[in-house]
Design goal:
The structure is a homotetramer. Chain A is an alpha/beta fold. Chain A contains 14 helices and 14 strands. Chain A has helices at residues 11-23, 50-54, 110-123, 151-167, 182-188, 203-209, 226-237, 264-274, 283-287, 290-303, 329-352, 357-365, 367-375, 377-389, and strands at 2-5, 27-32, 37-42, 59-63, 86-88, 91-93, 99-103, 127-129, 172-175, 192-195, 216-219, 244-248, 279-282, 307-311.
Chain lengths: 390, 390, 390, 390
C-alpha cells in the first residue's frame, strides 16, 4: 500500500504517518518528490486499517499496490497456475473435467422437476439447478417461486429438487435469497448454494455463508469491477472457507440487445491471472436470448470457465419464469456435447501456451540488438524530436 | 402492453394470444402489418402474467406502453404534480420545507453521536443519520459498525443514536442490512429505515419492509435504470405501504474521478415526471469527495430533491469510516444555510414554470402558418429530395 | 414503426398523423387503447422522416418495430443465415476460412515492418496490419505514427507497409483518421481501410468512405449499442457499398482490470441474428493485456467472429506504441494455429445446431399436454392466486 | 510518475530504468518493498515517453501521480481558484457573468434563423447557436443540415447564421464536423467553433483546431472519464492555444429514461478542482426531454457551469431536427431569467465557502484531544480487536 501525502503535507505529518504504520507492525519506505511524498507500507495489508490512515493529517489518498484479496487470489505463476477444486456433492469443479449444471429456472412441480432432472441426466450434464424462491424485477409478476409463500412451501420446494437430484444421481444447486434460509437448505440436503446477481453485495447474506459447509456459487454483480467482486467473494472466505466458485453472468453496458453483457475477458482474467477459484459462465442470464446461450456458453469455456450453468426446461414455452432463455431438451443435449468438445480443445491449447513471462527474458536481452536492427537511424531522429519538444 | 408476434406467427397463434388476454379480463386491439402483427392489452397490466404470454407460441416480445409501477408513479399532470408527504418522526418530507438529514457515517461512541447530534441540531438540519452496522467493500477494513458483532451490540448501538436524537429533538435515520433486524429497529425507536445501495435489489429485505410502519428511504442501486429502480421501490409498496422516499446516490459511469456519478437528471425525471414520492440526494456517497458535497447537494436540490442526506462528523479526520467525505462542522452549518436559499429559489422558479403541455396546443395550431413563414420555399425542395431518395 | 400518441391527443391530431403517413406512401394501422392510441406505419421505414413525425401535434414518441438498418441487416433466417463475403485483396473474409490479420500496432521503420510481415506470413496469418498515423490518448506521448508529421511522411509510411505486404503476399489493413487521406491510401495501394474506435461515429469520415472501392473494417465505439452501431455502419453502406466488415474491440463497463470489455455476446448477436456482414474480434485492444489476447481471440471465434485482428511485433518490448498488448512471435504462431482449430470446431458445431425456430412449432403443439402432465393441479391454484390479487 | 516493477524484476532491470529516466533529465526516487520495487520520476512528465518505459524489461506498469494535462489544469488552490476567461466575440465566458448561448438545433432557413436570433436576443441570452451540418445517428433521417450537400451549401448556411448574429448583436457558435471546413468557418465569420460529442476523440479534427484563433467549445464524449477528457482537450491546447471551453452533455449510464446522463459531479470537479477552463452545460442533449432542460440547466449552473447551451426554436413542433428537446420561446425567456437568479445565488454562496484545506490544519491539531473526548475507552478495545485478527 502506498500512502500519497498531499501537496502541502508537513514533515511532521509525514513522520506521524510513518510512525503509525510502524507501530502497527509494517515496514515502511519513502519517496520524496518535488511536490509529493509517497510512503510505502509493506506487510499483510489486509490487516491495515485503511480508513484510519486516510483520515490522518496531510494524507491525500491510498494507492493499492498489491492485492487486498488474499484467499481468493491466484497463488501460482503464469506458467504454473494453481486452482482450487471445489466439490458439489461428488462432482469435482475446477479439476480435469468440465462441470455442466443444468435445469429449469424454477422448480414448478414434482413432475416438472423430475422430468427436468431426467433430461439433464440424459444430456450428460453433471448437476441439477432449479430455483425455489425467485428474484423478480416486478412485484406483480405473479410468480416468485414454489417456495416463496411460507416456510412450509420453502421446505416442500427444496425437498422436490433434492428428491429429483437423488433419483438421477445429480447434486443440486439452489439459489438462496435470505440469510435465515441457509440452514433450511443445509438441513434438507441441497448440495450447493447459489448467490444471485442482485445479492452479490448483500453483506448480511455473505457473512452468513462464511459458516456453511456447503459450496457457494457467488455470482458477480452487474456493476462490479473484477477486483471489487473478488473482495466481496473474499468476504465469504475471510474466516477460512475455501469452497467457493465464481460465476460471470453479465454486466451493464451500452449493449441493449442482450439482457446483459457477458464479460468473458473477466473470466479469462480471473482464471488465468487473478484467482485460484473455479469460474463459471451463466449465458442464460448473460444473454437472455435462447439462441445465443449456445455460442456464449462455448465461448465462455474457451475464455477460461470450468463450470457452466444452463437453463433448460422440458418445455420452455410453458415455463413459469424466464422461459425465453431456457433451452429445449434437444438443444441442451447438443450443447452439453459441444461443451465437452470445446473443453477438450481448450485443455489441449492451454497445455501448449507459452506465457509472456517465459519469453520476456530472452526478448529483453535482445532489446539492444533488435533496436539497432529494426530502428537503426530512426532511433536517433526520434530522440531529437522529443528533445525539441521538451 | 403490446404483444409483438414473430414474423412467422400463424393466425392460430395470434388468435390464441388474443383469447388468452381476453380470458384474463383484458380488452384487446390488433394491428396487422406487412410482416408483423401487434396485439394490445388494455387494463391493469400490473396483473398481467407477462412470463406466461412471452412463452406462448409465435410471441416475439412484449413492449410496455404504460408504466408497470402504479403506486410509486406520479398521478398528477405536468402543470399540477401530486406528491406524497412522508413523515420521519414529526418531520414532513416532500412538503413545503426542505428536509436536511445529517450526521456521521457511523455511530462510533456515545460522546461522538451526542456531539454530532448537537452539531446537526445547531446547523439547522432536521434529522439525524448514523450507521450502526456498516457496509464495507473489504472484509478486512477492521470496522463494520458499532453494532456489527452481536445482537447485543446492535441493540446498544441503536439505543445510542435514538438517545442522541431524542436529546436534540431530531428523528433518526438508520440503515438496515438484514431483514431480521427490522423489528429490532422498530422496537428501539428508530424513526426511519434506510436501504443502502448494495441492497437496492435485495428482495428478501424489501419484502420484509412491506410490513414496517416506519418510513423507508430506499436508495437507488448504481446500475439501475430509473424505471427499473421504481419497480424495486414498488415492491416495498405493493401491499399498500405509502411512506417511502427515493434517494439518488450515484451510478456507475465512465467518470472515475468521483466515487460515483450522481444522476441529477434522474432526480428531475423522478420529481417532475415519474413519481409521487419525495426524492433525496446523497452527495456524500455520490461524490466521495468532501469538497464536492457542497456543490452537488445544492445542484441536487435545484434538480428536484426535497430531502438531503449529508455526512458530517465532529472531526472527520478521526472518523472510523468514510471520513474523507464527511463535512467539518463549519461546512455543515454553511451548507444547511445554502440549502435553504437554493430551496427557496427553486420553489419560486418552479411556481413560474410553464410546462410544454400548456404550450403545445397553441404552437400546434400555428404550425401551418409558422411553416409557411419560416420555410416557405425550402419545404418544397425538401419534399422532392426525399422523394428521389425513396 | 409505431407512432405512440400522447395521453391527451385529440382525434384530429391522430387523423393528421395518419393522413401524413399515407401521403408519404405508407399503409397505416391503428390501435385505440383506453388511454393511448398507437398508429402503425408499414413500408420502407428507412425513408420515413422521423423527426417530422416526432414533432407533429399529439405525438409522444416513435417505437421502432422493424430494423432501421437495411443493408447491414441479416437477410436469412435462423436456420439458414446469409452472410456477405468481403475481399481484402485476394483474401476472402466471411467465407469458409478464418481470416487472421496480424502485425504491429505501428509501422516503425522499413526493417521493422519487413520483419513483422515475414513473421506474420510464417505464422499462417493471411493479412498484414500496421498503423501509419496513430491515435494517442495523450498529446504528449511523443509518437503519433511514422506518417503523422506531413503528407510526405504519410506517403512514405504507407509505401513501407504496402511494400512489405507485397513482398510476402499479404494484403494490408491500415487505419485512416482523416477523410482527406482516404484517396492517398487508395493511390498507394493499401488493401483495406480501418476505422478506429474513436472514429466510430465520425460522420465526415464515414460519409467519405461511401465512395471508396476498398473494403472497410469499421470498429465499434466503446459506448455504442449494437443496433446503434449498425446504424453508423449503415451510413457507410447507404449508397450501395457492400464490402464492410464489423469489428468488436471492447466496451466501457464496470471492469477496470482489462483495458476494455469485449462484448462477445455482441459478436454472437451480430453473426447469428442481426447482420449479414462478417464480424471481427480485436482482443489486443479488447483486453490490453498480452497474456489475455490468446484466450479472448479464441473465445471470439467461438462466439461468431470470422476475422481476427492481432497485434504482434518482432520484439514487443521495444515497440513504440502499445507494445504491452503485442504478442511475441512465438505466441503469434501458436495463436494462429489454435485459431484454426477453434474455427474448425466451431464450423462443425454450427452445422449441427438446431435453432429454436425449428423446435418451437413442435413444443407449441404439445403445450397443452405438457402443461397437464407437468403442472396438473398447480395450474388451477395458480390461476386462483392471480385472481385474488387482481 | 511511478514506475512499478514486476515481482520478479532483477536489480539490473531496475537500474536500467533508473538510468533511462535520469538520461531523459528526470530526478528519480526508489522504494523497495518486500515483493515490489517502485521508481519515481520527478519533473515535467508530459515529456515522458511512457510507451518506451512501459516496454522496458521488468516494468509492470506506470502509476500516474501528478496530472498529465498541464495547460487545461487548474493552477490555483482550493481557496483561490484561477480560471481562464475565454472570449466568444465580445462576450466573456468564465468571468463575472453567466453566458447563455441559445438557438435552434439547426439553421433551417433565413426567416427561421432570423426569427430565432430575435427571440434569443429578447430572452436575454448572449450568443446564438445553430448547426449547419448535423450529426444524425441514422443515415436515413432525411436531413443533415442546410449546409450538408455541397461546399456552396455550407457557405450559404454559415452566412445565414452569421448574418442573423450580426443583425441582433449576438456572436455565433457553430459545430464543425470536418477538419477541412474549419477555414471556411473562420472566413465567413463564425465566432466560436463547437466540437460535438461524437467527435470528442477525433484526433484529426482536434489537431486541426490547434491552429484556429477562434474559441473552441469541446464537448465531452459520452464514455470519457473526466481526466481522459481533459487529455483530449489538452490536445487542442498542446501548442499554446488557450481559448477552449469545456462542456458536459451527458454520459452513458444505466439510466435509459433520459437521452444521456448529465454528469454534474463532473462539472463540479472540473470547475472547483481540476481545470482552469470555463465549463458549460448542455441540458438539451443531456436530457433529450424538453421539460427537463429547465431544471437540469439550473442544476448545472449550481454545480459549477458558467456557460449554458440551450436549444430553442420559434416553433419547436416544426423543427427539422431534435425539436423534441427544443424549448418554446416562452420557456427560453423564463429559463434565461432563472439562470441569472441561480448564477447570482451561486456566486454569493461560493464566496462564503470554506474549503477543507482551510480547516484541516485546525482539526488535525485537535485530533488527539478529539479522539480522547469522543472515543475514550473504545479506542483501546478497538486496537485489541484488530490485533486479534492479524
Amino acid at each position: 500500500m502506498l500512502v500519497k501525502m498531499a501537496r502541502g503535507a508537513t514533515p511532521e505529518q509525514i513522520a506521524t504517518v510513518e510512525d503509525k504504520l510502524r507501530e502497527w507492525g509494517y515496514k515502511t519506505g519513502k519517496m520524496v518528490g518535488e511536490e509529493i511524498t509517497l510512503i510505502g507500507a509493506y506487510g499483510d495489508i489486509t490487516r491495515l486499517p485503511q480508513g484510519e490512515i486516510q483520515e490522518m493529517g496531510g494524507v491525500e489518498t491510498l494507492i493499492p499496490i498489491s492485492r487486498s484479496y488474499k484467499r481468493a487470489a491466484q497463488k501460482g505463476s503464469p506458467g504454473s497456475l494453481i486452482h482450487n477444486i471445489v466439490n458439489i456433492g461428488k462432482v469435482e469443479v475446477g479439476g480435469d473435467k468440465l462441470t455442466v449444471v443444468a435445469g429449469p429456472c424454477s422448480v414448478e412441480s414434482e413432475p416438472q422437476i423430475m422430468e427436468a432432472a431426467r433430461l439433464v441426466k440424459e444430456s450428460g450434464a453433471r448437476a441439477l439447478r432449479g430455483g425455489v424462491v425467485k428474484y423478480r424485477s416486478s412485484p406483480y409478476s405473479g410468480w416468485e417461486g414454489i417456495g416463496s409463500n411460507s416456510e412450509e412451501a420453502l421446505h416442500n420446494g427444496l425437498k422436490l429438487i433434492v428428491k429429483a437430484g437423488k433419483e438421477f444421481g445429480l447434486p443440486t444447486v439452489v439459489e438462496v435469497l435470505d440469510p435465515y434460509d441457509v440452514s433450511v437448505y443445509e438441513d434438507i440436503g441441497v448440495d450447493c448454494i447459489q448467490v444471485g446477481e442482485p445479492n452479490s453485495k448483500n453483506q448480511a447474506l455473505l457473512n452468513r455463508l462464511r459458516d456453511t459447509p456447503l459450496p457457494v456459487i457467488h455470482k458477480r454483480g452487474n456493476s462490479l469491477d473484477i477486483e471489487a467482486y473478488l473482495l466481496w467473494v473474499e468476504r465469504v472466505m475471510a474466516n477460512g472457507k475455501e469452497n467457493v466458485i465464481l460465476c460471470e453472468r453479465g454486466l451493464l453496458s451500452a449493449n441493449k440487445y442482450t439482457r446483459n453483457t457477458l464479460d468473458l475477458g473477466g473470466i479469462a482474467a480471473l482464471h488465468y491471472q487473478l484467482s485460484c477459484l473455479p469460474v463459471g459462465i451463466d449465458a442464460s442470464h448473460g444473454t437472455g436470448i435462447r439462441d445465443l446461450v449456445h455460442s456464449m456458453t462455448l465461448a465462455g469455456i474457451m475464455a477460461g470457465a470450468s463450470l457452466v450453468l444452463i437453463e433448460a426446461h422440458p418445455n420452455p414455452l410453458i415455463a413459469k419464469s424466464d422461459g425465453f432463455q431456457g433451452l429445449f431438451p434437444e438443444q441442451l443435449t447438443q450443447l452439453v456435447t459441444a461443451c465437452e468438445q470445446v473443453w477438450e480443445l481448450r485443455k489441449r491449447i492451454d497445455s501448449l501456451y507459452i506465457p509472456s513471462a517465459n519469453l520476456e527474458g530472452d526478448y529483453d536481452s535482445r532489446a539492444a540488438t533488435d533496436k539497432k536492427r529494426l530502428f537503426g537511424r530512426e532511433e536517433k531522429s526520434n530522440r531529437k524530436a522529443s528533445e525539441q519538444k521538451g
